[in-house]
Amino acid sequence: MTLKSRYLLNMLGVSILHFFAFISFMLITGKMDRILVAIPINLILLVGVNLVGAWIFFMPIQKYLNGELELSRVVKRIHQLPWMSSAWACVLVSAETKNLAESKLMAGVEFIAKGELPIRGKTEAVKVYEVLPKR
After folding, report:
1. Taken in order 124, 46, 16, 5, is the CA torsion positive or negative?
2. Helix (H, G, I), strand (E, B), or coil: what is residue 95?
3. 124 with 74: CB under 8 angstroms?
4. Contact 12, 47 (CB under 8 A)
5. In degrees, to the nearest 5, what angle opens at C-alpha 80 toward C-alphas 77 and 82?
6. pLDDT tens digits for 31-90?
7. Other CB atoms within 10 A of residue 50 CB
8. Greatest CA separation found in the chain?
9. Residue 42: which of 71, 28, 21, 73 has the closest Cα?
10. Which of 44, 51, 134 is nearest to 88 (CA)?
11. Are 84 and 57 in contact (CB under 8 A)?
């Protein structure tokens, strides 16, 4: 297996983790009938778009491995690849989660505010919610 294949396969791990988290959420809320809508969204966004982005991130490194670029021109990308990959995965999962939350997939779910968590000592805070099925 090539280095590029292993990298792309590792990037697919995001979609697998998100899919199981989403299944857990559906089980908790009792909305398993909506899974048929969630699967295509997960496949398109977290598999297809994720692989395209990962392929683009890895392209300079692949050019080096093919002998098309010198190491000095690729070192920066090698060092950036972990955080770029993490940021890309975060953006995709956030977009997919926001898309699902705004859709009718989450109808019948109640979000109850439980407090706030400070972010690095700043005045902004992340609201913490408990998710319950509506009665």
Report:
1. negative
2. helix
3. no
4. yes
5. 120
6. 777 777 777 877 787 888 999 999 999 999 999 999 999 999 999 999 999 999 999 988
7. 24
8. 63
9. 21
10. 51
11. yes
